[in-house]
Design brief:
The protein is mainly α. The protein has 2 domains: 108 residues, no CATH class; 73 residues, no CATH class. Helix content is 50%, strand content 0%. It is built from 9 helices and no strands. Helix 1 packs antiparallel against helix 2, helix 1 crosses helix 4 and helix 8 runs antiparallel to helix 9. The longest helix has 23 residues. It is globular. It starts with 14 loop residues before the first helix and ends in a 15-residue tail after the last helix.
Length: 206
């Protein structure tokens, strides 16, 4: 019997898709920081964003009592939000994944939480495809090195190699943050349409 081949098309998401995913993540991250989940749900529905919220995200937002792990996972999504905002040109440079992102800095380029998002969405534009693919390839290589080091029980590799194609200078000689690497790889794989997977089921193969 011939092996079944899964067909899928890898295509970079549209600017509108990316912008809406940013806002869905914005709501999830805010909930992780103890903003009212009922108000966030009302906001996403009012601004026609609820259909962008993934099933897992909806389950978290609608949970009667989220677990501490769910709350922690939600706050980590800021590291996935950062590369998507970069792809929209709202974060000028994507630093090496060695430290946690500046959450307040991300918030400054987003529309007011619980406010209108119409103008923000209409202004969404993506950076060139080549830059997105370069960023994805870079995070892939970094993630491979982080995982390889873990398998060998070696220290997390230093953040000097490879050169980040979207930064003007060499990363500092600091260790990569495995959690940041994972979240960034997750978001960038979604951005390029990796294997046609939806947000809840993105794989980060290395």
């Amino acid at each position: 019997m011939a092996e079944e081949i899964q067909e899928y098309i890898e295509k970079i998401r549209s600017a509108d898709e990316v912008a809406r995913r940013c806002l869905a993540l914005y709501a999830v991250i805010a909930a992780g920081h103890n903003e009212s989940r009922s108000e966030l749900i009302d906001w996403t529905r009012r601004e026609n964003l609820w259909k962008t919220v993934s099933p897992k995200e909806a389950s978290f937002l609608q949970a009667v009592a989220p677990t501490q792990q769910q709350l922690a996972n939600a706050t980590w999504r800021a590291e996935a939000l950062a590369p998507l905002l970069w792809a929209l040109g709202l974060v000028p440079k994507l630093p090496p994944p060695t430290d946690l992102c500046d959450v307040q800095g991300l918030r400054r380029v987003l529309p007011p939480l619980l406010g209108s998002v119409v103008e923000w969405l209409s202004a969404a534009r993506l950076c060139p495809d080549s830059e997105i693919h370069d960023a994805n390839e870079t995070i892939y290589q970094i993630h491979w090195r982080v995982r390889d080091a873990r398998l060998r029980n070696d220290p997390t590799p230093p953040g000097k190699l490879p050169r980040m194609p979207i930064a003007d200078c060499e990363p500092p000689a600091a260790s990569y943050n495995a959690g940041v690497v994972q979240e960034r790889h997750y978001a960038l794989n979604w951005l390029i349409g990796y294997r046609g997977q939806d947000w809840d089921h993105i794989s980060t193969d290395t």
